[in-house]
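Late entry, evening session. Most of the bench is empty. Finally got around to the prediction I had been postponing all week. Sequence below, unchanged from the version circulated by S.P.
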Amino acid sequence: MATEGAPTASSDPAASSPQAVVEHASAAAASLVLERVSVQFGGLHALSDVSFQVNSGEIVGLIGPNGAGKTTVFNVICGFVKPTAGHVQFPMAKSWKKETLAIRIVLWLPRAIGRRSSLARRLGHRFTQAGRAIATFVRRVLRIVRVRVPEKNRHLRPSQLARAGVSRTLQGVGLFPHLTVLENVMAGGQTRPHGGFFTSLFALPQGVRADRVLRDEALSQLDRLGVASFAPRMPGEIPYGVAKKVAVARALMCRPSLLLLDEPASGLDESELEEFAAHIVELRSDMAVLLVEHNMGFVMPLVDRLVVLDFGEVIATGRPSDVQQDPAVIEAYLGVQQ
């Protein structure tokens, strides 16, 4: 019996298995891959062998009853929770080879000066020792402040997400109450080139130019979502639906290849839902989108594929038209009729 509002999985058991989803050869490159991820809190199994992937240009919905483990999946992806087993991979994560090269130059330069400069020949061994001491000091500092990319872009820490091209919104809007809408969106540009602390503090030309570019980009993102007119307003002065769009605009400032939306439809009325869904569809041309949502009327026509969780396990995955009729999904949402 068809059940309105209940989600779907493919009728082919092999096609709906988590392993088949991960191993499926897609024409689009994968932006996110979860491979047999399990999370255990003491004796509680929050996630058990969760596997799925999100491809570039794809909108995937992660759904399930309350307590199914959806938020835990998001927290594992974002590095807030370390999986007990399994892997989270970001195949399209941006690398920092240029930064690595710059660091190598910084480490090499003092030794090179100490060995080869005319001043070194005059000062001899003392200068060489000084160069080595500088290099050692730089290494120690970098151990503290340098952001390392994990092998094969696995298990990124929260501080690494933005640079890797991964951005997330929260269930609430999470805007800074004492900043304007425009300033809130500018805060999302933390990975953009900027003039630095002193150039901004003293309004030097480089800092002024960097601030102007960041401001123009923030206005562009607000205009993209149709809320540019609210730029000078404070968060407490704008409607909730507008605040939701501002939060998305801020997430877009790091130019993500993967956007994570946590309950984007919550608190929106019917007209706002339709408009918000249209904006999410537009984003697929630039990135992959993974969203957690309870509103089935919002999710079903929006996503390309659904992943259904129940008690920490993937019970179905596939097109919405298939998953909606899956018996395991109907049972999870409505219970078994006696």
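Two things to note before I forget:
The longest helix spans residues 125-145.
Confidence is low (pLDDT under 50) at residues 1-27, 96-100, 145-151.
Will write this up properly tomorrow.
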